[in-house]
Amino acid sequence: PDYGLGAGDQPQLERIASAKFGAVERNTGVAPPDLLAIIASTAAPVTVPDWKRQAEIKVSSAGLSELTLTPAVMSLARPDLNDIRIVSGAVQIPYVFGEPRRIETVVTPVAETKNGVTVFKVEFPYANVPMKTLAFRTGETVAFSRAVRLYSSARDRRGAVSRAMLESRVWNYNPEEMNCQLVFSLPGQSSGEPFFMEIDNGSNGPVSITSAAVVYELAALIFRAEPGALSLLYSNSHAAAPQYDMQMFRDRLLNADTNPAELSGADSAVAAALLSRSEKVLLGLLLAAVAAGLAWAVARALPKERPKGGAA
Q: pLDDT (tens digit, 9 = 90+) per residue, 130-144?
């Protein structure tokens, strides 16, 4: 093309070459594609009796919702979370895992000093919940430098407890730096059995630990919520990981706006109320047949009454 810029227009060319693009902005005149229009709102039926626990889900409005699982739920679910299902009646609601959420729980370690070594025992409120960090906090007003070791513990089938060292380091504490805690990273570790931290005091007095803070990583579920009752099913040792078509849009769903959802009420064992009407009728007929069979067996087992007035 001929834009009319010749050799004599060098200054104009230099100014053009120095031009820069501004920030990329969304064209407000073009509506984004409706992701909900191409995502299925339901999936296949679920076999309800295979799940041992359930909890009610409350959503704020229809559309995309995000639910963060509680530590109590994750304690009873499988560690791989393959047994997590969202259902409406007995029909599955597809979901994808969102970005994990983190919460901090503070516990008080129990200390015991023997032969110049102080051992702090930490017991966790939840089992089988992934942990990110474990921080020990001190209120000491004087500096110290101590060798520390962190151990996890495990219990075998016979109840015997064994310990495994996770990390060893030197804790250099200076109260002027306003850093009153020692933080351990715990990738892949789940709470359950107690953890132990040993501090070598050397020729010094023991160090006091005021508290320990564990950061849990909780799973989040993104799903399409519709009006109606929703339940969370979990605790099934035989469940395989669900395979929803929704997974193909996970990257887009992670960046989508979602409404908050939460678990409501105490979780409970999955009840027969979740069975379909035909299943309830079949169950009633089966129980009636069992009761009739038991009554007949009891009647047969009882001794017959001898007739009165018989021959001497």
A: 999 999 999 999 999
Cβ within 8 Å of residue 140, ≥6 positions away: 173, 175, 180, 207, 208
Strand pairing class (259-269; 63-68): parallel
Residue with tokens 């409005």: 61
Instruction: Please provide residue 136's backbone torsions phi and psi, each rounded to the nearest 5 degrees.
Output: -105, 130
Query: For residues 169 and 146, what is the distance between their CA atoms, to the nearest angstrom?
Result: 9
Which helix (DSSP H) or strand (DSSP E) does residue 233 occupy?
Answer: strand 230-234
In contact, 59 and 65? CB cutoff 8 Å: yes
> Which phi-psi region, left, alpha or beta, contains residue 148 (left: φ > 0; alpha: ψ -120 to 50)?
beta
Determine the residue type at 259.
N
Q: Nearest-5° angle of CA 229, CA 235, CA 237?
A: 135
CB contact set of 293 (below 8 Å; sequence gap of 6+): none
Spatial contact of 206 and 138, defined as CB atoms under 8 Å apart: no
pLDDT beyond 80 at 287: no
CB atoms within 10 A of CB 174: 11
The secondary structure element, H or E, covering residue 296 is helix 277-301
What tokens appear for 171 in the block?
A: 């804790």
What six digits make up the tokens of 208?
């006091």
Q: pTM, whole model, 2 decimals?
A: 0.70
